[in-house]
Specification:
- The protein is mostly helical.
- A hairpin with a 4-residue loop joins strand 1 and strand 2.
- It starts with 11 loop residues before the first helix and ends in a 27-residue tail after the last strand.
- The longest helix has 51 residues.
- The protein has a two-stranded antiparallel sheet.
- It contains one helix and two strands.
């Protein structure tokens, strides 16, 4: 039976150096990959917020109903102006099924 050699294996210093290299490489890749993705999301959200603000201001300025349509399949968006609905005439009569309805405020 052979006796174990006392110099077999790794020293604590070698293990710490390898562990340090692994941590540094992981940190560099994590900040490179994660940081770029976060910047794109942040920029896209700022652009969307600015566009929504524009749609709101456009609706106030024109007095028309506006809507923003977002097409996720094509990754596009557009602003549409909706036509104003016709005003109901005051002389319009209630439909037959509404004759028995009580239009008074509810009793609390």
């Amino acid at each position: 039976m052979k006796a174990a050699r006392p110099d077999a294996g790794f020293t604590l210093l070698e293990l710490l150096v390898v562990l340090l290299v692994i941590v540094l490489v992981t940190g560099v890749f994590t900040t490179t990959i994660g940081g770029g993705f976060g910047v794109h999301i942040r920029n896209a959200s700022r652009t969307l917020a600015a566009e929504l603000e524009y749609v709101g201001q456009r609706a106030i300025t024109t007095g028309q109903t506006q809507r923003m349509v977002i097409d996720l399949d094509q990754q596009l968006y557009r602003v549409e102006e909706l036509p104003t609905p016709p005003l109901p005439s005051e002389a319009a009569e209630l439909p037959e099924h509404a004759e028995g309805l009580d239009l008074a405020a509810p009793i609390e």
